[in-house]
């Protein structure tokens, strides 16, 4: 295992729920724990004094931290239980026994019963869970029974025995908790419809049940059976107010290996989850350095062989995001929906978190590598001939043509270089003409850089669509820079990237780092430009207020502001103090204007 300082490993941890694993210098497992917030929980081991000596010894031995990200805190608790039983870490005591979490069993029989159990028996019955506590199971059972009356007896309700009148309804029927299928008072079709709804409820899907009850409620209300309609409404309220907190995995998914892959220009990240009876018993993520332009399919095929050999996996089925070639005897499944797809999504999520964790570590350990990776990615994403180490972004600011200004911001290696930011007052354009303003500013910027023999950027970003981009191109043509500097426009509405002479825009992934840098530059140019624009507007408003006084012109207004700093102080000044600056005659006019 690569020796990375613990403080860097901690800084790169995600903040969501999951399970963490501590390893010593020999790569031996020390401890497995769960957390609602991985970063906060794991960091707490290293930034406080521990009361128990066992914990202090554990912390001293930690050399590496691994983690598995899961959707909810309940999932973290279940996964922790599975990993402790599988890995048997030295410092875990409580969960090493053979106790199992409870499940909900839908019995494989005619008119199925629903009941809690801690034993999963392969008799064709359906099992839902596992749940974090029996209390959770009881709450869910109470919810279901309050909405759907189910039988609780263990009679063999075959059609022959019911037709023969072998059974009589019990107290549960008279209490309204059962509809009496034992005497044929409830049909198998109606009962099975209830069971179908219950299957969805325990998986967290209440849509079909609520839809059915709403239609029933409306029908009863139309018949003016308001009391019965209210009973149905109460059931709808119960369903809408309840939320299942745990992600349910089908226990029939057993002896399966799950693989997913995330890649960029330089590296690929392959996550491996091993499942048994619907539970994750192992997780591992591999980082692969690309040598050439390898495809994800080729890399995943190699990773599957290596990881299965490393962990001695004998699983006969693989879940993967796309078809791959594997050895004979292995079944390959590409899930599209349901429990299988949920597991594959969880694997992909862990691969993404691992990739982000590595990026965060690299930012601290090797910032140059991080920058090189982003620049290489931008070159690929934007189809550039060179890495955009020097980026300049332009934005115009005006309100109905007043005080038009523009801003140019500079980014070096993906980071703002604020000392090189420039403001521009628009000189040759009258009225609110953004296109002409952009043309003027781009021309002035690069004419000066050429005259001063300053380095030109590799990429120019224009805030706007095809119109602004065309205007900027005119200036580059006049300066003979067309084709020497890459230039793109970014439109705000859908964040489209426009290229010269290409009517079809490029849409980058919303999470793309290339798009984030372009957006940051655009937002920074807007912020920088609007600051100057607001200052000009406020100064203009102040001067207008003073210049509206008879006998006060622009020079007098500036002279007064230089002395008194604000219009408020000018209003409060006496005739004597004003006359010292502008003479007695003007001082009286100014004083009288503000003290009518």
UniProtKB/TrEMBL annotation:
Residues 262-476 form the UvrC family homology region profile domain. SUPFAM superfamilies: C-terminal UvrC-binding domain of UvrB, GIY-YIG endonuclease, RuvA domain 2-like. CDD domains: GIY-YIG_UvrC_Cho (cd10434). One of its GO terms (cellular component) is cytoplasm. InterPro entries: GIY-YIG_endonuc, GIY-YIG_endonuc_sf, GIY-YIG_UvrC_Cho, RuvA_2-like, UVR_dom_sf, UvrABC_protein_C, UvrC, UvrC_RNase_H_dom. Keywords: Cytoplasm, DNA damage, DNA excision, DNA repair, Excision nuclease, SOS response. Its main location: cytoplasm. GO terms for molecular function: DNA binding; excinuclease ABC activity. Belongs to the UvrC family. NCBIfam families: uvrC. Interacts with UvrB in an incision complex. This is UvrABC system protein C. The gene is uvrC.
């Amino acid at each position: 295992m690569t020796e990375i300082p613990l403080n860097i490993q901690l800084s790169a941890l995600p903040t969501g729920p999951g399970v963490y694993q501590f390893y010593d210098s020999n790569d031996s497992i020390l401890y497995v724990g769960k957390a609602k917030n991985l970063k906060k929980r794991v960091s707490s081991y290293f930034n406080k004094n521990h009361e128990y000596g066992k914990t202090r010894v554990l912390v001293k031995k930690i050399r590496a931290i691994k983690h598995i990200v899961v959707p909810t805190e309940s999932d973290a608790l279940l996964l922790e239980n599975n990993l402790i039983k599988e890995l048997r870490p030295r410092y875990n005591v409580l969960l090493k026994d053979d106790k199992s979490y409870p499940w909900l069993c839908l019995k494989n029989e005619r008119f199925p019963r629903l009941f809690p159990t801690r034993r999963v028996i392969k008799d064709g019955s359906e099992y839902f869970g596992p749940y974090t506590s029996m209390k959770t199971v009881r709450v869910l059972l109470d919810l279901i029974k309050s909405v759907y009356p189910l039988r609780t007896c263990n009679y063999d309700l075959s059609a022959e025995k019911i037709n023969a009148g072998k059974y009589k309804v019990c107290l549960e029927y008279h209490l309204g908790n059962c509809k009496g299928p034992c005497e044929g008072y409830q049909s198998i079709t109606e009962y099975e419809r209830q069971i179908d709804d219950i299957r969805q409820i325990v998986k967290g899907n209440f849509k079909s049940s609520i839809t059915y009850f709403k239609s029933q409620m409306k029908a009863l209300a139309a018949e003016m059976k308001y009391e019965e309609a209210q009973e149905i409404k109460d059931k709808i309220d119960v369903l809408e107010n309840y939320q299942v907190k745990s992600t349910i995995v089908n226990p029939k998914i057993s002896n399966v290996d799950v693989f997913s892959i995330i890649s960029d220009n330089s590296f690929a990240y392959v996550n491996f989850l091993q499942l048994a009876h619907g539970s994750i018993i192992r997780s591992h993520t591999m980082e692969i350095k690309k040598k050439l332009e390898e495809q994800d399919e080729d890399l995943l095929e190699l990773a599957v062989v290596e990881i299965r050999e490393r962990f001695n996996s004998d699983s006969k089925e693989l879940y993967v995001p796309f078809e791959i070639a594997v050895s004979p005897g292995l079944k390959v499944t590409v899930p599209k929906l349901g429990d299988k797809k949920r597991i594959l999504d969880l694997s992909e999520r862990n691969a993404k978190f691992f990739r982000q964790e590595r990026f965060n570590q690299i930012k601290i350990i090797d910032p140059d590598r991080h920058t090189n990776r982003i620049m290489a990615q931008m070159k690929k994403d934007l189809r550039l001939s060179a890495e955009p180490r020097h980026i300049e972004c332009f934005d115009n600011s005006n309100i109905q043509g007043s005080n038009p200004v523009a801003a140019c911001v500079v980014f070096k290696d993906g980071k703002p270089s604020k000392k090189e930011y420039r403001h521009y007052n628009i000189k040759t354009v009258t009225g609110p003409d953004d296109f002409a303003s952009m043309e003027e500013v781009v021309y002035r910027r690069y004419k000066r850089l050429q005259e001063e023999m300053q380095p030109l950027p590799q990429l120019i970003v224009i805030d706007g669509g095809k119109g602004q981009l065309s205007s900027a191109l005119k200036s580059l043509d006049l300066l003979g820079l067309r084709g020497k500097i890459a230039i793109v426009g970014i439109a705000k509405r859908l964040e489209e990237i426009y290229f010269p002479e290409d009517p079809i825009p490029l849409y980058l992934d919303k999470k793309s780092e290339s798009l984030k840098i372009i957006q940051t530059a655009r937002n920074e140019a807007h912020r920088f430009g609007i600051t100057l624009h607001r200052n000009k507007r406020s100064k203009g408003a102040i001067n207008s207020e003073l210049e509206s006084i008879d006998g006060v012109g622009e020079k007098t207004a500036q002279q007064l502001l230089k002395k008194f700093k604000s219009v408020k102080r000018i209003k409060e000044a006496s005739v004597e103090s004003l006359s010292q600056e502008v003479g007695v005659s003007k001082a009286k006019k100014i004083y009288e204007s503000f003290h009518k």
